[in-house]
Specification:
Organism: Microbacterium jejuense
Number of helices: 8
Number of strands: 10
CATH superfamily: Aminoglycoside phosphotransferase (APH), C-terminal lobe
Radius of gyration: 18 Å
Order of helices and strands: EEEHEEEHHHEEEEHHHH
Shape: globular
CATH architecture: Alpha-Beta Complex
Protein name: Aminoglycoside phosphotransferase family protein
Pfam family, one: APH
Length: about 250
């Protein structure tokens, strides 16, 4: 009898591991639909979809270990980070998926809403919010849509040695700003950006990546607080926002 491991659980979604199978329970059926479609067309290693019986999606585990975790130094090699960059570039160069992604208007509206909430609830100093919102403006420009993962957290990229063995959790995939993926993967691991870009290529816009570090941290904080996570844990979103203040 295989043990059941709870990977993540909150009011919107739960992910369980039973042996080599992940069971994803989601109250929004659109997430599983996007994930299955993205996995079927993504040109990089992904899990295999085993079956889908709403609200449960079953996928295979991928070999290897996550590139790292938020709040702790990544022990992955420079070559592994470069391999991740090369894989992301391959995804971004692939044909656009045929479903819509988030628009610039959507991002601007979300930033406005979340900054207002952060100010109203005084979870951070107002100057920290104001300065990071100012930094985030560099990301709020028209972009050429690319096929992006959309939630490319460091725990979603798996490596074995210096090779990428799989990228998981594709429910936010779609056309979008490729710099957002690069920023999400290096959030809290800014020191590994050069390693990532060694594999991705020289045309990444570092100023936009830095802007997305601020923007993503601002818009994610309320959701994390309301779902039992701590954005003020060492190395996490609040630390990212404070570090932007020191760098400015």
């Amino acid at each position: 009898m295989e043990d059941v491991e709870v990977i993540v659980a909150h009011s919107q979604r739960a992910t369980l591991r039973v042996g080599d199978v992940f069971l994803k329970v989601d109250n929004n059926p659109a997430h599983a639909e996007v994930e299955m479609k993205a996995i079927s067309v993504a040109p990089i290693p992904t899990p295999a979809v085993l079956w889908h019986r709403p609200p449960v999606l079953a996928i295979t585990a991928v070999p290897g270990e996550a590139l790292g975790v938020l709040g702790e130094p990544s022990t992955a090699s420079k070559a592994a980070w470069a391999a991740a960059g090369a894989a992301i570039r391959k995804l971004h160069d692939a044909p656009l998926p045929p479903w819509p992604g988030r628009s610039l208007h959507d991002v601007v509206a979300e930033l406005e809403t979340e900054c207002s909430w952060l100010l109203d609830n005084a979870v951070l100093p107002a100057e920290t919010i104001r300065r990071n919102r100012e930094i985030a403006q560099a990301a709020l420009r028209p972009w050429k849509p690319r096929f992006i993962h959309g939630d490319l957290q460091i725990t979603h990229v798996f490596v074995e040695g210096d090779e990428v063995t799989g990228v998981i959790d594709w429910s936010e995939a779609g056309p979008g700003d490729p710099m957002f993926d690069l920023a999400t993967l290096t959030l809290g691991h800014e020191e590994r950006l050069d390693d990532l870009l060694a594999g991705y290529g020289d045309d990444a816009d570092r100023s936009v990546i830095r802007a997305w570090w601020s923007l993503r941290s601002l818009v994610a904080s309320r959701w994390l607080i309301e779902h039992g996570f701590d954005p003020d844990a060492p190395g996490c979103e609040f630390d990212v926002l404070r570090s932007r203040m020191r760098d400015s």
